[in-house]
Design brief:
Blueprint (H helix, E strand, L loop, with lengths): L6 H4 L3 E5 L20 E4 L10 E2 L8 E7 L2 E6 L13 E4 L9 E4 L6 E3 L16 E5 L16 E5 L5
Antiparallel strand pairs: 1-10, 2-3, 2-4, 4-5, 6-7, 7-8, 9-10
Bound molecules: FE2/S2 (inorganic) cluster.
FE2/S2 (inorganic) cluster binds next to loops.
Length: about 160
C-alpha cells in the first residue's frame, strides 16, 4: 500500500466563515491595516480539516490569512516569503498604475516589501507570496429548510496545489 500523501489530500477545503463576517478593510480610516479585519487559521500542511483551529497561535508556516479588501476576499500565507514576518501586521494598498481598478497589494511591516494580492509577485527579488484558492458557497440548508441569509456566502479556502 502506498502511504505517501497525494497533493489532492493535502489541499482540503476549509470553511473560514461567512462573507458577512469579514469587515472590508478598505473602509478602515487607519491606513488599511489588515489586523482588525482579518482571520488567521492554522492549517498544517499534512493534516486534515478537523485539526485546524481559528485564531490559534502556531507555526507561522502553517497559517493562512483571510481578509476582505474592496469587496474581494483574499487568502494568503500569513508568513512573509522574505523573512517570515506575519503579514497580518502589514498594510493593504491599491495598485492602480497597472490599469486594473481592482488591483491590490500588501506591504510587509518588517522591511517594506510589497506583494501583489492577485499574482503573489514581489516588488523586488524572486520571492513570491503563496496565494490560497478561494471558493464562495451557498450556506448549507438547515434541517427545517432555513438558510442563514440568502445573500450571504460561505468562504472556503485551500492551500494551492503546487504544479
Ligand atoms: S520579512 Fe517581510 S519584507 Fe522582510
Amino acid at each position: 500500500m502506498n502511504t505517501s500523501e497525494k497533493p489532492a489530500e493535502m489541499s482540503t477545503w476549509h470553511l473560514v466563515g461567512l462573507v458577512s463576517s469579514f469587515t472590508d478593510i478598505s473602509l478602515d480610516d487607519n491606513g488599511c491595516k489588515v489586523l482588525p479585519g482579518c482571520k488567521t487559521m492554522s492549517i498544517p500542511k499534512s493534516q486534515n480539516a478537523d485539526q485546524a483551529r481559528m485564531n490559534r497561535i502556531s507555526d507561522l508556516d502553517d497559517q493562512v490569512l483571510v481578509f476582505k479588501f474592496k469587496g474581494f476576499i483574499h487568502a494568503i500565507d500569513n508568513q512573509c516569503p522574505h523573512s517570515s514576518f506575519p503579514l497580518k501586521q502589514g498594510n493593504v494598498f491599491d495598485i492602480e498604475d497597472l490599469g486594473n481598478p481592482n488591483g491590490a497589494g500588501i506591504r510587509c511591516f518588517r522591511h517594506g516589501w510589497r506583494f501583489d494580492l492577485f499574482t503573489g509577485k514581489a516588488d523586488r527579488g524572486n520571492h513570491e507570496l503563496n496565494l490560497w484558492d478561494i471558493k464562495l458557497r451557498d450556506p448549507l440548508t438547515s434541517e427545517n429548510g432555513d438558510v442563514t441569509t440568502i445573500s450571504d456566502k460561505e468562504v472556503w479556502v485551500r492551500r494551492a496545489v503546487q504544479s
